[in-house]
Structure formats: C-alpha cells, structure tokens
Amino acid sequence: MALLIAAPHPLASQVVPVDRIDPDALPRPSLEARRATSPIALDGNLDEAAWALADSTRGVFYQSIPNQGVPSAERTVVRVLYDRQRLYVGATMYDSRPEALVSAGMEQDFATQDSDIFGFALDTYLDRQNAFLFAVNPAGALFDAQAFNDQQSVNRAWEGEVEVATRITEYGWVAEIAVPMTTLRFRETEGPQDWGINFSRRIRRISEDSNWAPLTRQFRVYKMSRAGTLTSLEGLGQGRNLWVKPFVNGVRSDGLRNDGSSEKLEGGFDLKWGITPQLTLDVTALTDFSQVEVDEQQINLTRFSLFFPEKRDFFLENDGIFSFQDARVRNFRTGSGPQNFKLFHSRRIGLSADRTPVPIAAGARMTGRVGDYAVGLLNMQTRDGPSHPGENFAVVRLRKNVLTSSDIGFMFVNREGTGRGLADAYNRTFGADANLRLAGGRMLLNSYLAVTDEPDANGDRTTGALEFAWRDPLWAASVLVKTVGDDFNPGVGFVARRGVRQGFVTLGAHPQPAIPHVRELNPYVDVNLFSDLGWTLESREITPGLGVAFLDSGMLTMEYSASYERFDSATPIAGVAIPAGEYDFGAFTASYRSNLGRKLGGTLAVTRGEFFDGQRSSVTGGVTLRPSAHLFVEGTAQRNHLTLAGRTFDANLFAGRLRYAHDTRTFLSAFVQYNEASDRLQTNVRFNLIHAPLSDVFLVYSELRDRSPEPGQAGVIDRAVTLKVTKLVAF
Question: I want to staple 480 with a disulfide (CB 3.0 to 4.6 A). Which of 9, 467, 571, 689 is the partner?
C-alpha cells in the first residue's frame, strides 16, 4: 500500500473539474488523525505503511487567489498521523512543472510571500481564534509563527522545535513535518479531542493561493473561525515540558568614542516550563540580546516620534496576548496602527530612548489560558548602573473570549524606579478594551479606554477609541474616532501624538474586472482629521488612490494626498524649523512592487509635490537578486530632495543586505546602511549555526562609524565582536 503514495498516478497533477463554489457556503471539512502504526522516518518519502493507512484530504484545495472558489490548478494531498510524542503531517504537492518551483531562501522564517509553500495552522484549543502556524518551501526551510485573534495579528518571532524533510520529484514535491507535542499547547483529556486545522498551498509561478477549508480572498490559512477540524486525537502527552537554554556570551569592544576598548564574558539562561498544558512560564536571567539584528535607520519627514518594532525573541513570543493597541488588521484599512499607539511596547524595557541596551538582571513571563481567559503576566528588572538606574516593569493582561471569535480584556502596566534617585518614581497604566469580530470576520468593532498615573501629572491622562470596519470580497470601509489627552503618558508604551482628537473614514472597493494581466483593482479614498482637545483643526489629509494587483503578483499604487497642517510654534521637520502658521500642500505618489519571487525583482516609489512651505521630490527603490535558494542580495536607496523654510537640501539613505545559506542550519548575513544626512555608516555581519534544535552559535560583528567626526573625536562610535553560544536542554 505504501507504493500507492510514493508513485505518482499518470493524472496525479490534474484536479477533477468542479464548479466554482462559494467558500462561505461550503461546510467546513474534517480530517481524521490516525495513530501511527509503525515508526516514521523523516526523509521526505511517505513510504511507511502508516501513511498508506492515514485519512487524506483527497486532493481538492480551493483557490482564494486569484480565482476565489475555483479548485487549485494542481492537486495537493495531505495526511496526518500522530503518536504520543509527535504530530506528523505528510503532504504531496503535485506540479506539472517541478522545474519552476520557487524557494525564497533556506533560513528559518523565510519570505513566504515570495515562495512556493505548503502550510498549516493548528488551533489546539479549538477556540476558533488562535493557532500555531507552520509553512515549508521546497528547499526544506521552515516558517513558524503564532496567530492570534482570528487573523488579527501574527507573531513571526515565535519558534518551536519542528523537524522538516522535503523532496523534489518528477511530479512535484513532498513535505514531511514532525511537530513534537512539547512544542504545542493543548488540553490533556481522557478521551479523544478535536483541533481546528487548515492547510494551504502557494504556487508562486502562477501566483495562486489555495486552501483545504475554502476561504474568501481577504482571509489567510490562520483565519481559524473558517478552519476545518482534525478529529480523533487521543492519548496525547506533553511530558514534563521543561526547557532550559543556558548561554555564554563574549564581547570585544574597541575604538569606542568614549569608553575605549573593553572585553567581557557573561553567561545566563532562559527557562521555559509548561506549568499546565495551558500555562507556560518563561524565565530569563542576565539576559543578552547581542545576536538580534540592528534597527534599520529611518528618515523622519514628520513632526512625530518614529516607531521602531520589537525584535527580541523573549518579548515577541506570545506577544499577541499582550496586544493593546491601535488595530492593524490584514486587508482592513484602519487609519491607525501600533506605530501610532501601543499601551505596552516592550522596547521600553532594556533599551534607552536612543536605542542603546540597558542591562536586564532577570525577568519572568507567564502566558496561556485559564478557562475562557487568555492570561499574560510579566515582570522584568533592569540592573542598576551609573547612566541607567534600575527599574522594575510589571504587566498584567487578561482577555476573555466572547461571541465565539471576539474578546474583551483588561491591562495593568507598572514602571517603578528601584535604583539611585528613583525611589519615588513610578508610572502606572490601566486599560480596558473590546475587540468584536462579527459577520464571519467581515466586520470589526474595536474599542479601548486607558488612563495613566504618575507624579505631577495634572492634565488629561486618558485615551479612548472606537472603530468600525467592514471588509467583504468587494467592499471595504472603516470609521475611527479617537482622543488622546495632553498628559497621557504610558511609561512602558508608545504614543505618537498627544493632546489630539482624531477622526478617520475610508471607503474602497476590490472589483476583479476582466482586464488582461490584472487580478484586482482597489479604488479608495481616505480622510484623516486631527484637532486639538478644543476641536481646533491641526491636521487634515484627504487621499484618493488606486491600487492595481496584477496576476503575476506585481502591485501598482497611485495616490494624491491633499494635506493641511497648523503649527502654533516653530516645528522641526527633517531637521529644519518650520515657522508657525497654516500650510496647505499636495503631492502625488506612485509605487510599484514586482513579483519578488523571481530571480530578479524590485520596488520603486516616486513622490513629487508641495511640502509645507516648499517642495518635495522623493524616490525610493530597491533591487533584489535571488539566483538560488542559497543566496539573496538586496540593495535599496531613498533620495529626498527637499525645499523647506527657504533651504534646499537632500536627505538620503542607502542600504545593502546579503543572506547566504549553506543549508537550513548554517547562515551568513550582512547589512550595511549609510545615512547621508548624519554621514554615518552602520554595519552588521552575523554568522549563525544551528548546532541542535533551538540551539545556536552566533558570531556577530557590528559597527557604527561617523564619517565626518569633529576634530579630536574618533570616527568609530561603536564597534563590537560578539560570540554567543546557546544550548537547549529538554527534560
């Protein structure tokens, strides 16, 4: 019977013709998980007898892109087995042109949008909201993540112990994946249990996305309220579920502008313990993040603070539980996002305002579920030092599931000084939110209210928002009203603009006309208004636009922004003080992104028009080269030619990136960026060897150089060579 799987049928790559279906009307499918009757060798060959006895999806996947509801152009067959220690997924992706398969890299968390992939999402609690997400490409690279709140957010930094084997054949490709039960979280029950599940496939050369449980084109495989069901799982065990990951870290710094040369050797550890099948405790001591890639520099053409995303794994895992922010939801235009407001932004822990590290002594985080509640508890302590006195950070987050795929929640955040001179310093934040997903996920109703407390705060210390959004296969609309007090200050959060009231409305459509080479059009208009707390208009931006999505995955966007800004006092923009006054100006932007899954791809964006009291001409572009799955090279440039307050100047930024993968365990990456305005060159080179599951060797070289130092100053601001070794020990 094994040969029935290993050998292709002459018509294996053909799908039996089926009429177009309505993805919402079709019942959700189910698949029986069967216990493996023999050992499974993970080699990309589904030739064990157990695979022949497994239930299968029988090959019918339905497209979400480009032809919603139509069977996939190629056949896909998936089987699921399990034993007490592992869940096994075996997938055969038949393909009439296996020589045209695309693998966008071999590194973990590769660019899935640019690659052929097979993926699946596991809703282990069957709450129809949250999932573990896994995907592989033909080269054997793994993408793993956590998805939260029924597709509302995805944590790409999550990593689990997963084994993968793939094989390219004359009839397509095969993926064999083993997920240890210790990687997952689920309820331990006496009898059988069911999990939510969906499978997806992307065929890059024809820009097709398809799913086992069919989805409309605005949804992805981790839309768990529309997933199928994996049945008959029984006798599962998670063991002790205790992981300890010690590390040793050696750093050599020299050429420093202020401190000279130094050497240090440090060690610490991370611990992960599954206290219950639904609660996980993470502990870290003498934490070090030297292996994390450096922040990319940004040119700020606004009057507000720039937002830099979190990149440190300890804070990113399960961060969806701690989410309390302006919504940024895939396929919805929401008028705001985390770059405007986050009640808890973990970058405020262990990083100073100028993004230099602050030593962390220890910390702990507990995340998971207790009944219908998602629970997040965090406590971190930074070390006391001469430039950064010690502080304690504590977070409590509770979210309760309501109405199947919605939630209401509460958050408390406390920042308290523990070091010299901070005995009476504190900042506290309280917030409540409701996130309702209705009409099968087509309608969002999000709201929150938060207040901060700290010494000497006398103004308005509250913020609140109410947002309605709608998205179906054709129409998209949203309305947002929001207020931020002038003294609202989340000490462990991020807020871009205080003392304002915001109103935002958008209306758009997504028709699919019969135009050659065009998949979808997206005409839209956005109106965004800001006033001060006394309702005097401060900013207005009206933006009509048109997006054109091509069948080859290229994307063209054209829009015109009609802007108004009022300044009560001189305000710096791009380093130039703009006088107080009122400014009406408009600019046109056109951008194009090609299919980056090809060996040669690129992006280009051009903006021209008025800019406050002057003019702006901006060109941003990038070229990507991917000759094979082993090598990726990218070059980007941003040129801004500005006239402001009678001054004409340039603000330019250039960057280059290289990634080389010897195999799926050995990687070399390099990133170089030059900011012409500050005349600074930033370099980061990183070698990574995965010597065992979730165990790494990192060798990192980083440098920040001032190419025009003041007389008597060193050109090198910061330079370091770091060697870090980690080893996961599981009990």
Answer: 467
Tokens encoding 252: 């050599």
What is the Cα–Cα distance from 455 to 458, expressed in whole angstroms?
9
Q: What is the mean pLDDT of residues 418-423?
A: 77
Q: Is 319 within 8 Å of 325 (Cβ atoms)? A: no
* Sign (positive or negative) of CA dihedral 453, 316, 323, 239: negative
Q: Is the pLDDT of residue 684 over 80?
A: yes
Neighbours of 586 (CB within 10 A): 14
pLDDT exceeds 50 at position 549: yes
Beta carbons of 177 and 80 less than 8 angstroms apart: no
Residue 481 carries which side chain, given as an amino acid letter?
A: V
Q: What is the pTM of this model?
A: 0.83
92-133 pLDDT, tens digit per residue, is 999 999 999 999 999 988 989 999 999 999 999 898 888 999
Q: Is 700 exposed, middle or buried (0-12, 13-18, 19+ CB in 10 A)?
A: buried
- Tell me if the bond preceding 66 is cis, omega within 30° of 0: yes
Cβ atoms of 208 and 65 closer than 8 Å: yes
Residues 6+ apart with CB under 8 A from 27: none
Average pLDDT, the chain: 89
Query: Residues, the chain, total?
Result: 731
12 DSSP 8-state letter: T
CA distances to 115, 138, 201, 202, 717 from 210, rounded to whole Å, are 14, 17, 5, 7, 50
Banded model confidence at residue 11, pLDDT cuts 50, 70, 90: very low
Measure CA of the first residue to CA of the last residue in the chain; give whole Å.
38
**CA distances from residue 445 to 406, 468, 469, 478, 519 in whole angstroms, order as listed:** 10, 5, 7, 10, 29
For residue 664, pLDDT over 50 is answered with yes
Torsion from C-alpha of 515, 516, 518, 520, nearest 10 degrees: 30
Alpha-carbon distance 194 to 726, whole Å? 36
Instruction: Write phi, then psi, for 348 (nearest 5 degrees).
Output: -75, -10
pLDDT exceeds cutoff 80 at 19 = no
CA distances, 645 to each of 36, 145, 300, 577 (Å): 73, 47, 17, 7
Pairwise CA distance, residues 86 & 83, whole Å: 6
**403 class by beta-carbon count within 10 Å (0-12 exposed, 13-18 middle, 19+ buried):** exposed
Distance between CA atoms of residues 538 and 529, nearest Å:
8
Supply φ then ψ for residue 287, to 5 degrees.
-65, 140
Q: How many helices (H) and strands (E) does the chain have?
A: 3, 43
Distance CA 100, CA 36 (A): 34
